């Protein structure tokens, strides 16, 4: 090895040591992620804001700059509403800068001044958006371009349920407390305002279960995930291979489909030939929500409840005919263009099968056993083909009686001859 080679090795070692010296320790506060590149390439629009950037991951994009003026106006509204000073606001965010940065899975390259300014605008914008949604008297009559411009608030809903477009919930809660008025207005809190906001755009998703624990909620996506977790979670089981019959195959085996009274999507039960599934609304915003909740779950948790939920439903609804069966049972409210669009969304959503931890392993096992039973299939065929209406049933019974009488008459004739 010549002297030049030795010099190169030392330079590389020094460079790496410098990089290691400034390496920040991993934080357990990390909770906001970018979608994995493989998923993002397939569903770009499901993770990319179209109107407003919240937080650093999409900040500064040209098409989102128009909303920056609205943020500044809402900052003024926040200062007037809270009766706090801009200096106090910025000071608090600066004091929590490291904690805020730790909430993002990737290093935020913005300098301290730009980061603190951005967080000040984005956090107060979200607080005032939720406040004005809940308390219409706080809106500037007819001149608030978010609430009085047609469809603007609806477009904002889509952007606010994106994982890459989040700010940590703790900063919203702490800044909300800057105002002494907060407790005087119906005992408001950020959790109550968040619930009120999302009930307006997706009331079918936000449950009224007051026993849910939102004390450690990380951001809006986490709030929406917690809303749909069952109060009493069952133990995940193992499953050798995720193979199960479709809704059509189960129908042919005599399985009945009923809407489960629970509003928690994960409360799927199968017992005595009846598959109970909580109501499912399928629309554009539900697709966005499911993909972003799923991505957050896969990045952050070991228990993949919604991953398993989508897997189970996707196995049930392979085709438009399968969707039609659940639609007839009142289980699905399809707001897509047709039934095939629902099946296509489920088929094309990337999920992960963990054979050692599958939340619906008992349901899959019971459905497979039921569908494989020759007796169940034969009984279902008899009922569906010959007893599907009262008149056909009467006809079959009458034909059976006539056949029996004919046999008796023939037997009596033979006996007389003998």
Care to describe what's here?
This protein is mainly alpha-helical and 418 residues long. The model has no long low-confidence stretch (mean pLDDT 85). The strands form two sheets. Strands 1-3-2 form a three-stranded mixed β-sheet, with helices on one face. Strands 4-5 form a two-stranded parallel sheet. The protein has helices at 3-21, 37-42, 68-82, 86-95, 97-102, 112-134, 152-160, 169-176, 190-202, 220-227, 247-252, 284-300, 305-316, 320-328, 339-348, 361-372, 374-386, 390-417; strands spanning 256-260, 269-271, 274-278, 280-282, 332-334. The chain is elongated and about 115 Å long. It folds into three domains: 37-227, no CATH class; 247-375, no CATH class; 390-417.
In short:
The chain crosses the membrane at residues 391-415. InterPro entries: DUF247_pln (IPR004158). The chain is mainly alpha-helical and 418 residues long.
List its traits:
mainly alpha, two-stranded parallel sheet, elongated, three-stranded mixed sheet, about 425 residues
Structural class: mainly alpha
Number of strands: 5
- Overall shape: it is elongated
Give the integer mean of the pLDDT values.
85
- Report helical residue fraction: 40-55%
Question: What is the makeup of the main sheet?
Answer: 3 strands, mixed
In DSSP terms (H or I, runs of 4 or more residues), the helix count works out at 18
- How many independent structural domains? 3
The strands making up the biggest β-sheet line up spatially as: 1-3-2
User: Low-confidence parts, pLDDT < 50 over ≥5 residues?
Assistant: none
What radius of gyration results from the CA coordinates? 29 Å
Give the helices and strands as they follow along the chain. HHHHHHHHHHHEEEEHHHEHHHH
Distance between the termini: 117 Å
Strand content: under 5%
């Amino acid at each position: 090895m010549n002297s030049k080679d030795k010099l190169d090795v030392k330079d590389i070692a020094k460079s790496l040591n410098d990089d290691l010296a400034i390496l920040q320790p991993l934080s357990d506060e990390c909770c906001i992620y970018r979608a994995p590149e493989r998923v993002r390439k397939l569903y770009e629009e499901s993770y990319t804001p179209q109107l407003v950037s919240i937080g650093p991951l999409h900040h500064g994009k040209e098409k989102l700059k128009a909303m920056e003026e609205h943020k500044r106006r809402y900052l003024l509204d926040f200062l007037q509403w809270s009766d706090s000073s801009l200096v106090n606001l910025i000071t608090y965010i600066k004091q929590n800068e490291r904690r805020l940065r730790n909430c993002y899975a990737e290093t935020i390259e913005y300098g301290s001044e730009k980061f603190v300014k951005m967080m000040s605008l984005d956090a107060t914008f979200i607080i005032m958006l939720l406040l004005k949604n809940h308390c219409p008297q706080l809106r500037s009559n007819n001149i608030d371009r978010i609430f009085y411009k047609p469809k603007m608030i609806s477009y904002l809903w889509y952007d606010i349920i994106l994982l890459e477009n989040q700010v940590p919930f703790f900063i919203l809660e702490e800044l909300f407390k800057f105002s002494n008025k907060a407790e005087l207005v119906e005992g408001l809190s950020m959790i109550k305002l968040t619930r009120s906001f999302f009930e307006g755009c997706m009331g079918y998703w936000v449950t009224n279960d007051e026993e849910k624990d939102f004390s450690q909620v990380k951001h809006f996506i986490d709030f929406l995930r917690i809303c749909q977790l069952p109060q009493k979670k069952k133990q995940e089981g193992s499953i050798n291979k995720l193979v199960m019959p479709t809704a059509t195959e189960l129908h042919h085996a005599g399985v009945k489909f009923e809407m489960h009274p629970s509003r928690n999507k994960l409360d799927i039960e199968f017992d005595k030939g009846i598959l109970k599934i909580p109501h499912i609304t399928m629309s554009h915003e539900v697709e966005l929500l499911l993909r972003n909740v799923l991505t957050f779950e896969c990045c952050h948790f070991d228990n993949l409840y919604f991953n398993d939920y989508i897997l189970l439903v996707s196995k049930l609804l392979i085709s438009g005919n399968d969707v039609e069966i659940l639609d007839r049972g009142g289980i699905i409210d399809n707001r897509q263009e047709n039934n095939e669009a629902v099946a296509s969304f489920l088929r094309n959503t990337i999920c992960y099968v963990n054979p050692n931890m599958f939340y619906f392993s008992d349901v899959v096992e019971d459905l497979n056993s039921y569908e494989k039973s020759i007796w169940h299939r034969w009984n279902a065929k008899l009922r569906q083909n010959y007893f599907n209406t009262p008149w056909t049933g009467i006809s079959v019974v009458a034909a059976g009686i006539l056949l029996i009488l004919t046999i008796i008459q023939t037997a009596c004739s033979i006996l007389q001859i003998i």
